């Protein structure tokens, strides 16, 4: 084969291989199929600012139980940078992101809590999660059939996200509600601030 044919052919093969490799390895950041978000309420007004609730959160404060609503805790971690828990959006002033992952035979999910400067920043993050980006998926499940909810609780934001692990789609409401109860760990902080 002449060199003038071999070189363009080799370049074309490399380009096709490169594009193919990109498609095989690139995974778009997933979003939940269903999302609901709630702004902070008057109940959390006493912790509407980190100045009123300065103590950092701890993993032991949030993720003590080995199971929650029939879901086994797989991992828990404190992320060194809040942006490690997010894609497509920022959380200005965030000092902590704590995350735990959970699974059962049919469902997997995660719970993430962000420590933000105030209730306005928390409400802004909850609103941004509805359209601009989302939390990074930390455990495998089918995001295209998943459900998520985010709540601003004073200067905190909790995000609960669950999805099926198999082709069948189980009821996700019960595990979503169960994991969302992890946000109740904030209640002692409300009581302490009153």
What's this, in brief?
By secondary structure, the chain is an alpha+beta fold. The chain is 27% helix and 27% strand. It has helices spanning 3-25, 59-62, 119-129, 173-180, 187-193; strands at 34-38, 67-68, 71-79, 86-87, 96-103, 107-115, 134-135, 147-153, 156-164.
Which structural class fits the helix and strand makeup?
alpha+beta
| Unreliably modeled segments | 10-27
In percent, how helical is the residue content? 25-40%
Taken together, the total number of domains comes to 1
Helices and strands, with pairings:
Blueprint: H1 3-25, E1 34-38, H2 59-62, E2 67-68, E3 71-79, E4 86-87, E5 96-103, E6 107-115, H3 119-129, E7 134-135, E8 147-153, E9 156-164, H4 173-180, H5 187-193
Parallel strand pairs: 1-8
Antiparallel strand pairs: 2-3, 3-5, 4-7, 5-6, 6-9, 8-9
In words, what does this structure look like?
The protein has 194 residues and is an alpha+beta fold. It has one domain: Protein Transport Mog1p, Chain A (3-Layer(aba) Sandwich). 27% of the residues lie in helices and 27% in strands. The protein has helices at residues 3-25, 59-62, 119-129, 173-180, 187-193; strands spanning 34-38, 67-68, 71-79, 86-87, 96-103, 107-115, 134-135, 147-153, 156-164. Strands 1-8-9-6-5-3-2 form a seven-stranded mixed beta sheet, sandwiched between helices. A two-stranded antiparallel ribbon has the order 4-7. A hairpin with a 2-residue loop joins strand 8 (147-153) and strand 9. The chain is globular and about 80 Å long. The model is unreliable at 10-27 (pLDDT under 50).
């Amino acid at each position: 084969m002449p060199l003038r044919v071999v070189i363009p052919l080799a370049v074309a093969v490399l380009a096709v291989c490169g594009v193919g490799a990109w498609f095989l390895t690139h995974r778009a950041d997933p979003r939940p199929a269903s999302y609901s978000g709630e702004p902070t309420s008057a109940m959390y007004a006493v912790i509407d600012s980190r100045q009123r609730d300065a103590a950092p959160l701890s993993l032991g404060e949030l993720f003590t139980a080995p199971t929650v609503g029939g879901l086994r805790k797989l991992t828990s971690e404190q992320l060194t940078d809040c942006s490690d828990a997010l894609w497509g959006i920022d959380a200005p002033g965030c000092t902590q992101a704590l995350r735990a992952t959970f699974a059962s035979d049919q469902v997997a999910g995660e719970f993430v809590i962000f420590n933000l400067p105030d209730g306005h920043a928390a409400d802004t993050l909850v609103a941004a999660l509805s359209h601009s980006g989302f939390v990074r998926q930390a455990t495998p499940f089918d995001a295209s059939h998943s459900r998520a909810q985010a709540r601003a609780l004073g200067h905190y934001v909790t995000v609960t996200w669950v999805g099926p692990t198999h082709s069948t789609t189980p009821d996700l409401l019960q595990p979503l509600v169960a994991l969302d109860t992890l946000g109740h760990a904030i209640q002692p902080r409300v009581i302490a601030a009153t």
